[in-house]
Design a protein that fits this description.
There is one protein chain. The chain is of the alpha/beta class. The protein has 2 domains: 125 residues, Enolase-like, N-terminal domain (Enolase-like, domain 1); 221 residues, TIM Barrel, CATH 3.20.20. Helix content is 33%, strand content 21%. The strands form 3 sheets. Strands 5-6-7-8-9-10-11 form a 7-stranded parallel sheet. Strands 3-2-1-13 form a 4-stranded antiparallel sheet. The chain has a two-stranded antiparallel ribbon with strand order 4-12. Helix 1 crosses helix 3. The protein is globular, with a radius of gyration of 20 Å. The structure holds 2-succinylbenzoate (OSB) and magnesium ion (MG). Magnesium ion binds next to loops.
């Protein structure tokens, strides 16, 4: 595909409710929409870097810089065969996986549109609907959390993940477990603990959790192994896994028993599939993480989660859990069995709502090379 034009949009969208994690509280979500024109078709990509470097070092501004000055110029005016070809051309850019993944997503969308195949089909998906859950931010009190979870259960979610941080962990999880003894429940610390402070998490092992996500540093593998030795509950890594190589090393080190796959975190869908394939070959369950995506990134997550190794419910909730108005014409809704349909149309299978894109764009730039 010949790359004719690349336009970046810096988006800022209000969340339906504040989302609080161990690294901060957000009332709006930033991100980048990347539109790539090729031979009469438009491909869309979403870069999931947010306003601040709380989850990872990338921000919407660093991603903008790296996309505008390095990644987009590497393909603009040239012919790119596919995602593998794209990754070879940008391999000299160290790091910045979310920036790379955003542009790669637009190329996948274009490839699907050219071939008349859905992204799920291109990636090797085997399901037309995927099991999903909801990620619930820190609330004011354990009672407020129980109530919040209860409302999501009424909406139809059958798996919940709650955010934890030091001082807001065992009591919160225990309160939810007491209220909902059979709920598929998991927790996510977003790197808030050390080997020492994680000792306070030991009682979580009695709560029948599906997994404990990323208790320690985002750059750690070894200490997670030491934590996993102390728990019967599987440790799941999110932040620490930036490639299939990290995934292999984490599994060989026994640092975790489950992996959360996010295409943005590993530099694109191609690497995400490689992590999936590696885990599948080793019998390690994976699930699709989320980054509060718009309809564009949500479509990508649904396609990825349709691969056979995604055996645990993903953090892919319905559009209305995040945004009253989305930038896509399509809104994703929850089926009564706590699944969401995988888009079937060519590419990502979504169309933009130009008025909404306009409304939430805080700056826009065409890359000139
Ligand atoms: O750690 O999984 C995470 C959101 C932003 C950044 C990191 C994470 C999250 C979530 C929300 O947990 C998942 C979602 O519903 O998109
Ligand atoms: Mg996480």
């Amino acid at each position: 595909m010949h790359i004719d034009r690349i336009v970046l949009h810096h988006l800022r969208m209000p969340l339906v409710a504040p989302f609080e994690t161990s690294f901060g509280r957000s009332v709006e979500r930033e991100g980048l929409l990347i539109v790539v024109q090729s031979e009469g078709l438009a491909g869309y990509g979403e870069c999931v870097a947010d306003h601040d470097p709380g989850y990872a070092y990338e921000t919407s501004q660093t991603a903008w810089h790296v996309l505008r000055d390095f990644l987009a110029p590497a393909i603009l005016g040239r012919t790119v065969a596919d995602a593998a070809d794209f990754q070879r051309r940008v391999a000299r850019v160290r790091g910045h996986p979310m920036a790379k993944a955003g542009l790669e997503m637009a190329l996948w969308d274009l490839q699907g549109k050219r071939e008349g195949r859905s992204l799920a089909a291109l990636l090797g998906g085997v399901r037309d609907r995927v099991d999903v859950g909801v990620s619930v931010g820190l609330q004011e009190s354990p009672a407020a959390l129980v109530e919040r979870v209860g409302r999501y259960l009424e909406d139809g979610y059958r798996r919940a993940k709650i955010k934890i941080k030091p001082g807001r962990d065992v009591a919160d999880a225990a309160a939810v477990r007491r209220a909902y003894p059979d709920l598929r429940l998991q927790v996510d610390a977003n790197s808030a603990y050390t080997l020492e402070t994680a000792a306070a998490l030991q009682p979580l092992d009695e709560l029948g959790l599906l997994l404990i996500e990323q208790p320690l540093s985002e750059d750690d593998l070894w200490d997670h192994r030491l934590i996993q030795e102390r728990f019967r509950t599987p440790i799941c890594l999110d932040e620490s896994i930036l490639s299939a190589r990290h995934a292999r090393q984490a599994l060989e080190m026994q640092s975790c028993r489950v992996i959360n796959i996010k295409a943005g975190r590993v530099g694109g869908l191609r690497e995400a599939v490689a992590v999936h394939d590696l885990c599948r070959a080793r019998g390690i369950p994976v699930w699709c993480g989320g980054m509060l995506e718009t309809g564009v990134g949500r479509a990508s997550n649904l396609a990825l989660a349709s691969l056979p190794g995604f055996t645990l419910p993903g953090d892919i909730s319905a559009s209305d859990r995040y945004y009253t108005e989305d930038i896509t014409q399509e809104r994703f809704t929850l089926n009564p069995d706590s699944t969401i349909d995988v888009p079937a149309a060519a590419g990502l299978g979504v169309t933009l709502d130009p008025a909404a894109v306009e409304r939430y764009t805080i700056s826009r730039e065409e890359v000139t090379g």
